Amino acid sequence: MGEAERRTMKQWPQAFEEIENRIHHLFAQYQSRERAIQYIKGLLSPVERKNSWQLAEAAGEKDPYKIQYLLGRADWDPDIMRDDLIRYVGDHVQDSEAVIVVDETGFLKKGTHSAGVARQYSGTAGRIENSQIGVFAAYVTGGDHILIDRELYLPKEWVEDGKRRSSAGIPPERKFLSKPKLAKVMIERIISCGLAFKWAAGDSVYGDDRGLRIWLEEKGKAYVFAVSGKEYVDAGFHQYRVSDILASLPKKGWVRMSAGDGSKGPRLYDWLLLEINSPLRKGWKRWLLVRRNVNDPQDLRAHVACAPAKTELSELVRIAGIRWAIEVSFEDAKQETGLDEYEVRSFTGWYRHITLSMFAYALLSVLKGSAREAVKKNRQIRKGSLARFKAQRGLLSP
């Protein structure tokens, strides 16, 4: 076990005490509060499958009924817990330069009764499958990427079917919202909770929504969103289809830069920045940022960016690359805190499990980050102490 892991282990009791203090107001019953803490501990435990049966066994229960009660009928609001989660992240890793990355992930399901389940494209499977789709927001800083908000996407056939809505416990006020609109709802909540961030990023599902981009500009939030070839951008007095722009790019002006480190080292691409019409916000500009594969010049990806006019190309490239952090968050949360291992069908049950899993993942991320910083600080202290020792003995080079 390394130094960072040992420090993380020592902080567990204090970390759980803090979480309990933060969420105790949600539960009128002491038993429900204790069960929620046990649920989070179970999600962080090494049990093979983090479903109700195995989590109950890990908690010393004979059957899963108490856990099922927590997710189904107990009196507590997962949306208030979500706000507590956002504030928890703000208290520990808040960064004014942070990026809010929005994306969706699929949860493969059998049958037709789970809220929102339908034959739809799932990025998890890479094809159309029977699945639920969750839209998420991640808070990404220089060292952390933490899921902080979530919404269940409800296809139109679910919203328009009163019988299915009722059987899954979908509240009557919940209307059909596209994935970009769900992203806007989440970002608006993050702003309301006072969590600082500078940028927003996402793939073309969100970048192709002009309304989302303009709304972010009005809020003073910079962004870099991927856009598809069918999207249009304004330049001068004309609108240009992105696919047409990509078909007639100049040969000069490309700059080779890394979009961040991947599993095989720096992710190098060639980048071209084309200025398009500026927003109404004074001192800001919009650009079309084009990424070209260094090994295949025909492999192009476009992004629409908006930020203060003096923003460097390297910063826009960094934000374009950082959106992949949410994919890492999905993978980690599914592996480490059972994000996808729920056995609930109801609308409320989905939100409760997902929120508890996100809180467990945030706790783990905060502990890991704290341990990394402590180890780094210790090394700096030791390095400084060694330098002073050498200086006292005249061993330093002139």
Major sheet: size, sense and barrel closure? Answer: 10 strands, mixed
Taken as a percent bin, the fraction of beta residues is 15-25%
Number of helices: 14
Structure summary, number of beta strands: 12
Please supply descriptive tags for the structure shown above.
398 residues, 14 helices, 44% helix, globular
Description:
By secondary structure, the chain is α+β, with helices and mostly antiparallel strands. The chain has helices spanning 3-23, 30-43, 52-58, 65-72, 78-93, 156-159, 162-168, 179-192, 204-207, 210-218, 242-246, 313-322, 325-336, 347-392, and strands at 99-108, 118-122, 127-140, 145-153, 199-202, 222-227, 232-235, 238-241, 255-262, 265-276, 284-293, 300-308. Strands 1, 2, 3, 4, 5, 6, 9, 10, 11 and 12 form a ten-stranded mixed beta sheet that branches. Strands 7-8 form a two-stranded antiparallel sheet. Helix 1 packs antiparallel against helix 2 (30-43) and helix 1 crosses helix 14.
Topology:
Elements: H1 3-23, H2 30-43, H3 52-58, H4 65-72, H5 78-93, E1 99-108, E2 118-122, E3 127-140, E4 145-153, H6 156-159, H7 162-168, H8 179-192, E5 199-202, H9 204-207, H10 210-218, E6 222-227, E7 232-235, E8 238-241, H11 242-246, E9 255-262, E10 265-276, E11 284-293, E12 300-308, H12 313-322, H13 325-336, H14 347-392
Parallel strand pairs: 1-5, 5-6
Antiparallel strand pairs: 1-3, 2-3, 3-4, 6-12, 7-8, 9-10, 10-11, 11-12
Describe the structure concisely.
This protein is α+β, with helices and mostly antiparallel strands and 398 residues long. The protein has helices at residues 3-23, 30-43, 52-58, 65-72, 78-93, 156-159, 162-168, 179-192, 204-207, 210-218, 242-246, 313-322, 325-336, 347-392, and strands at residues 99-108, 118-122, 127-140, 145-153, 199-202, 222-227, 232-235, 238-241, 255-262, 265-276, 284-293, 300-308.
